[in-house]
Amino acid sequence: MMDANILIESLYLKTKDSASNIIIKGIAAGAFIALGGILYAMIASMNTQSTLYKLAGSAAFSIGLILVIKLKAQLFTGNNLLFLNLFHKKNQSKEVLMNWLYIYFTNFIGAIILVFFISLLVQYIPGLNQFLMSVATKKTSYPFEQAFFKAILCNILVCLGVLLGVSLKTNKMRILGIIIPITLFVFLGFEHSIANMFFIPLGLILKGTNFIEFLPQFINNLIPVTIGNILGGLIVSIGIYKFVK
């Protein structure tokens, strides 16, 4: 059985973290998601024609959120559940907005740090190199509406993973509760803003895209995906508020 109060208290404590903790935990979460991303890419690129490899890679991506939850890092998309605390009057709007702002940019720093290191390594692995470039190309080709709706669906699943990963009673159930929705969102190709902070820069750098071309492509994906992720968090927060005790 799930206890929503555990999630509410966990979210509340995130807004009360010190500035130094927020920086460390935000950077760590961005790096954890990037690690999940490269693990996914390594497995899926072994056989791009195989659904089983894609499924295995999608499940492997879950390690990112497992690390975030287990090590109490702060992830922007998970923290979109702070809508729930607003409904319960546990946090004020200003606290929530400031948390999102700080965590969004520190997640970005964590993801970009991994982009730098991994870009130096994957250039020597042709299959993985090509796969990462194709991921970035695909993500930056979506029109606004498609990226937006994929992002809503993504964060519905991510927030369900956070809810299950925090509030279920045993560790085995929590880990399984994370793996199932995260595997689903990755396998179905939904859009996650923090993962895209890793995949898009990495793929475009590997392609040799210059900065003038790179920045608009990156921003044009990140804007609808970020908005969609926030809306997905709102939908799950309403559902928890109404139906989960």
Question: Helices and strands in order, then pairings?
Answer:
Blueprint (H helix, E strand, L loop, with lengths): L3 H12 L3 H26 L6 H11 L1 H8 L5 H4 L3 H5 L5 H30 L3 H14 L4 H24 L3 H17 L5 H15 L3 H33 L2
- Share of helical residues: over 70%
CATH class wording: Mainly Alpha
> What is the count of DSSP helices, taking H or I runs of 4+ residues?
12
Radius of gyration: 17 Å
Order of H and E elements:
HHHHHHHHHHHH
Strand count: 0
Give the overall silhouette.
globular
The fold-level CATH name is: Glycerol uptake facilitator protein
Residue stretches low in confidence (pLDDT < 50, at least 5 long) are none
Instruction: Give the overall average pLDDT.
Output: 95
CATH superfamily: Glycerol uptake facilitator protein
> How many domains, as an integer?
1
Oligomer kind: single chain
Quick rundown:
The protein is mainly α and 245 residues long.
Describe the structure.
The chain has 245 residues and is mainly α. The protein has one domain: Glycerol uptake facilitator protein (Up-down Bundle). The chain is built from twelve helices and no strands. Helix 2 crosses helix 11, helix 3 packs across helix 10 and helix 9 runs antiparallel to helix 10. The termini are close together.
